[in-house]
């Protein structure tokens, strides 16, 4: 058996570097900037008001309360058609441009209006300083300023900022396209009744969901029967259209599986036994330069293997600096016993944050076939070789969210 970190390093070392491309802003969420982005225009583009109120000259509010003549109204989107002179005020709505001559805004709640429409007056109740409730041009971003450096992950906030500088096309690393293949005559995916020895094809839908939840484009390459020609055909088609492939099953020592036969013939594969449980068997290599992950067939082992090997490597291929799931220290509520076997165990746990710290408890059955417990887990407790942890012990946990 080989240590986990050695297997992870081997996988990462064989995966290609991220590929830069140009992406429409609407499609950029979750990607990583391949280049720094510079502002080409000021944000905001003009001085405007942050409040509904009255645009005034600050000097005219000295000695408040004072009365001023209302000489106009400015709504957001309007252009000023006259300046503000001494003793004058213009009614102004949030986001409207500041009129010439005005250097402050008095919020409407601190004013009262009187007089007729032809001779309207406003009583200003407080003195205000220059710049009061005024958002200056370029206050957020100046032309030429670095908005985001290369390597920035694009979230909703970044999308909004990029839209504010009129960046409709984003220089980003391509989102990996990940093909998922199921093989096996024992698998049923068409909803029909199960025969003796048959099981539902659950790994492929689960892995596709993990791929897409992790921010990659999942490509369903279907269920393929145990026929060498058919398996070779789908694998070769997959490497033509995808950046990485996932297969499940046929990776244990002693397995004679058509996937293994085909991959050994068309690819450069390494068949590993990793010192972990679940997910000890792992096949990894490349076909025509495209990474192929041969994950275990047991459903929980398949998902854990994805978390430990495929997801970090695929995130690196997408340009992410942070490739691993967050790790925290947590107190175990209830023991998590295990026996010495030379492996690191990953126990499926429920994570809770309370009283300023993390606490974890078992999510249920820990067998590599027990999907219900995996579905209920939001963390993997890392149990080093030995007797496990007792109630109240501190344990390291990978957060699955």
Write a concise keyword list for the protein shown above.
single chain, 401 residues, alpha/beta, Molybdenum Cofactor Biosythetic Enzyme, Chain A, Molybdopterin biosynthesis moea protein, domain 2, Molybdopterin biosynthesis moeA protein, domain 3, 6-stranded mixed sheet, 7 helices, 28 strands, 20% helix, 33% strand, elongated
Task: State the gist of this model.
By secondary structure, this protein is α/β, with parallel strands linked by helices. It is built from seven helices and 28 strands. The strands form eight sheets. A six-stranded mixed beta sheet has the order 7-4-6-5-9-8, with no helix packed on it.
Portion in strands: 25-35%
CATH topology of the largest domain: Molybdenum Cofactor Biosythetic Enzyme, Chain A
CATH class of the largest domain: Alpha Beta
Number of helices: 7
Radius of gyration: 31 Å
Report the strand count. Answer: 28
Strands of the widest sheet, in order across it, are: 7-4-6-5-9-8
Describe this structure in words.
The protein has 7 helices and 28 strands. By secondary structure, it is α/β, with parallel strands linked by helices. The protein has 4 domains: 158 residues, MoaB/Mog-like domain (Molybdenum Cofactor Biosythetic Enzyme, Chain A), CATH 3.40.980; 59 residues, Molybdopterin biosynthesis moea protein, domain 2, CATH 3.90.105; 88 residues, Molybdopterin biosynthesis moeA protein, domain 3 (Beta Complex), CATH 2.170.190; 73 residues, MoeA, C-terminal, domain IV (Beta-clip), CATH 2.40.340.10. The strands form 8 sheets. A 6-stranded mixed β-sheet has the order 7-4-6-5-9-8, with no helix packed on it. The longest helix is centred in the last third of the chain and has 19 residues. The chain is elongated.
């Amino acid at each position: 058996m080989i240590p986990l970190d050695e297997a992870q390093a081997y996988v990462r070392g064989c995966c290609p570097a991220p590929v830069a491309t140009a992406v429409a802003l609407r499609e950029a969420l979750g990607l990583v900037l391949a280049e720094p982005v510079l502002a080409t225009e000021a944000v905001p583009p003009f001085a405007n008001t942050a409040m509904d109120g009255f645009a005034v000259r600050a000097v005219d509010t000295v000695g408040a309360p004072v009365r001023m003549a209302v000489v106009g109204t400015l709504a957001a989107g309007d252009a000023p058609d006259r300046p503000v002179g001494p003793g004058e005020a213009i009614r102004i709505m949030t986001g409207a441009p500041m009129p010439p001559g005005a250097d402050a805004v008095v919020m409407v709640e601190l004013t009262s209006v009187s007089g007729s429409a032809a001779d309207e007056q406003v009583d200003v109740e407080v003195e205000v300083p220059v710049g009061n409730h005024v958002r200056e041009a370029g206050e957020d971003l100046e032309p030429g300023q670095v908005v985001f450096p290369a390597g920035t992950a694009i979230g909703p906030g970044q999308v909004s900022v990029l839209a504010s500088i009129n960046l409709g096309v984003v220089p980003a690393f391509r989102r990996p396209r990940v093909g998922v293949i199921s093989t096996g005559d024992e698998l049923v995916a068409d909803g029909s009744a199960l025969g003796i020895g048959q099981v539902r094809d659950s790994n492929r839908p689960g892995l596709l969901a993990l791929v897409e939840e992790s921010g990659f484009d999942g490509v369903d390459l279907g269920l393929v029967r145990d026929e060498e020609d058919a398996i070779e055909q789908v694998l070769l088609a997959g490497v033509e259209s995808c950046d990485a492939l996932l297969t499940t099953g046929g990776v244990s020592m002693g397995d004679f599986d058509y996937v293994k036969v085909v991959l050994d013939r068309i690819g450069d594969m390494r068949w590993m036994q990793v010192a972990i449980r679940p997910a000890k068997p792992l096949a990894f290599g490349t076909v025509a330069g495209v990474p192929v992950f041969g994950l275990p067939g047991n459903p929980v082992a398949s998902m854990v293997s994805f978390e430990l090997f495929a997801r970090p490597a695929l995130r690196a291929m997408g340009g992410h600096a942070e490739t691993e799931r967050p790790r925290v220290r947590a107190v175990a509520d209830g023991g998590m016993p295990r026996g010495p076997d030379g492996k690191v165990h990953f126990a499926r746990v429920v994570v809770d944050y309370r009283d300023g710290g993390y606490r974890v408890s078992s999510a249920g059955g820990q067998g590599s076939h027990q999907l219900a417990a995996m579905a209920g887990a939001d963390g993997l407790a890392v149990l080093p070789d030995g007797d496990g942890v007792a109630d109240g012990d501190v344990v390291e946990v990978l957060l699955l969210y």
